[in-house]
Amino acid sequence: MDLVEIKPPQWDVEIELAYATPNNITGKPIYAYPRCYLHRDAADALARAIELARALGYRFKIFDAFRPSEAQWALWKKDPNPEFLADPRRGSPHSRGVAVDLTLLDAAGRELEMGTGFDEFRPIAHHARTDVPVEAQRNRAILLGIMTAAHWDFYRNEWWHYQLFNSRNYPVYSDSALPPGRELMARPLDPIPVE
């Protein structure tokens, strides 16, 4: 299996999967199996980022990582906005297990001020915004520096989203037919309809 579970205590992170709860844009949980997974290549990059953050006195809180294709469709049906969501017909980096949504925690375990919450689908969530407080600008820059130094690419519209540079080289994963505890299966992308 190419996906590995990310969970404490093996991983020095906090996990708060937004899509495993009703606290997301759909208003309901959309994960059949609410566990945090990443492709092993992304997990290696996360391990590098954890070490870099630790050296500066920070930890990560993960809001999302692997997102099965069924969940991507649920989000897309709720808000088909390509500025903030990948079209599931093309495949999201999350559905490939090579993207992570996260924030930084201070030494006391408090989230750093980032100017918006997670999944704030407005332009104010874009990187390099100067109309958020200076503290939030600084914290976004610290997160960006840690993640890019650990070989993650960023998505300009979401301060919380990072993905591997070659994300399209990974298969899309689905979990709809699998009971808990089973391996996740890769599947080919659905063809994109020609209009």
Automatic annotation (TrEMBL):
Annotated catalytic residues: 158
Keyword Metal-binding: yes
UniProt cross-references to InterPro entries, sorted A to Z: A_A_dipeptidase (IPR000755), Zn_M74/Hedgehog-like (IPR009045)
GO biological process, one term: cell wall organization
Protein's name according to its UniProt entry: D-alanyl-D-alanine dipeptidase
UniProt similarity note: Belongs to the peptidase M15D family.
Function: Catalyzes hydrolysis of the D-alanyl-D-alanine dipeptide.
Catalyzed reaction equations: D-alanyl-D-alanine + H2O = 2 D-alanine
Annotated site, Transition state stabilizer, chain positions: 67
Cofactor note: Binds 1 zinc ion per subunit.
Keywords, comma-separated and alphabetical: Cell wall biogenesis/degradation, Dipeptidase, Hydrolase, Metal-binding, Metalloprotease, Protease, Zinc
Cofactor section: Zn(2+)
Class in the EC hierarchy, top level: hydrolase
Keyword Manganese: no
Gene: ddpX
PANTHER family referenced in this protein's UniProt entry, alphabetically: D-ALANYL-D-ALANINE DIPEPTIDASE
GO MF entry, a single one: D-Ala-D-Ala dipeptidase activity
Domain of life of the native organism: Bacteria
Residues annotated to bind Zn(2+): 94, 101, 161
E.C. numbers: 3.4.13.22
